[in-house]
Amino acid sequence: MTRLAKKEIERHRATLEVWQTPSAMLKRARRLMDHMGDEDLFNQPGVDFITEAWGAAQFGKGRHVLAVRLVPQREQWPDFEIRTRRRTIERWEFTEVDKPRRRRGLEMRRMAHRRAAGRLASEGERWEQLMAQAERVPRWIKRRCRAKAKKFYAGRAGLLVYLNWSDYGARRAEIEGCFIGATAPAKNAFTEVWVLWGARLYRTWRDGNKA
């Protein structure tokens, strides 16, 4: 577990603001995640760009683009850009969907304490809990998309929605089937809307129409 000093944050972010292949960015993001460890990654302020870089790299790899980079911090919006094989540049905003009220930093700290005590890092969740959560996933996505759309960002950009929740294969088809409806609140606020879930990408909207 390693917290980053201010100078380290600036240096690492600068390396991710340079155009690079998605594979190179993914390697850098993963290396930073491993270096920090889950507890510090989710507890230290100012390091959200690492998760954004990871998501941008995954998106770039899935789209088979030439290059990707984080938008310079001074520009504030959006989060990243990709250079397609047609040599066009697309701008993208990143948002993460998780269980509401989840305190991931506290969760990771508790897991670290359990490991230190020689116990299992996580007790896991009961099957009934997963099934109940699966029914709520569309509402979680819709809430995040609505919040993003209400910000009325200047300029044109797409939206990448990262669903950070696993059904462990229980209701995958149902979850996949909800993506179009759940991301609808963002369809007119962004040029395109995609969902990243696990290792797969799903394009749901383009120019306000179903993709």
Your description of this structure?
The protein has one domain. It is globular. The relative contact order is 0.12. Helix 2 (22-41) runs antiparallel to helix 3 and helix 2 (22-41) crosses helix 4 (104-116). Strands 1-2-3-4-5-6-7 form a 7-stranded mixed beta sheet. It has helices at 6-16, 22-41, 48-63, 104-116, 127-149, 172-182, and strands at 67-70, 80-83, 89-97, 158-163, 192-197, 200-206, 209-210. It has 211 residues and is an alpha/beta fold.
In terms of topology, how is this protein built?
Blueprint: H1 6-16, H2 22-41, H3 48-63, E1 67-70, E2 80-83, E3 89-97, H4 104-116, H5 127-149, E4 158-163, H6 172-182, E5 192-197, E6 200-206, E7 209-210
Parallel strand pairs: 3-4, 4-5
Antiparallel strand pairs: 1-2, 2-3, 5-6, 6-7
- Strand-and-helix sequence, N→C? HHHEEEHHEHEEE
Give Rg in angstroms: 18 Å
Structural class: alpha/beta
* Domain module tally: 1
Helix content: 40-55%
Largest sheet: 7 strands, mixed
Shape: globular
Spans with pLDDT under 50 lasting ≥5 residues?
Answer: 119-123
Query: Overall mean pLDDT score?
Result: 88
Strand content: 15-25%
N→C terminal distance: 42 Å
Q: Give the spatial strand order of the biggest sheet.
A: 1-2-3-4-5-6-7
Q: What is the strand tally?
A: 7
Q: What would a concise description of this structure say?
A:
The chain has 211 residues and is α/β, with parallel strands linked by helices.
